[in-house]
Amino acid sequence: MINYTRKKGIVYKNQFHIIFCPKYRRKVLINGIDDRLKEVFLEIAKDEEIDIKAMEIMPDHVHLFIEFDPRKSLHSVIKALKGKSSNILRNEFPELKSKIPSLWTRSYFVCSVGHINEKVVEKYIEQQKGV
């Protein structure tokens, strides 16, 4: 059974897999920066009411599996995660400022995470013809 999040006036399952990289895909998320980034993401998530289901910090990219209230825009959630983490890490780790002009690239990858796949949806739609 799927566990939906319930809030006043809304029931949802709004999950996304997000990937983004440091500027120039530099391998700067190492030597304690990766551990601190995890802490920072959890702090931001708490402030922004984002549920981080899974997180992996690689030297040159970040994977996040998140869920949040669909009344928030996906772009604003990503902007909060990237913007706030960049400010904090660049202040705490000055070496980042000398290696790259900004911590994150402007781009990101996002994929909605559902509990059914494309084939199931296609089959369901095809079956509706006879209903």
From TrEMBL:
GO terms for biological process: DNA transposition. Residues 11-128 form the Transposase IS200-like domain. GO terms for molecular function: DNA binding; transposase activity. NCBIfam families: transpos_IS200 (NF033573). This is IS200/IS605 family transposase. It comes from Finegoldia magna (Peptostreptococcus magnus).
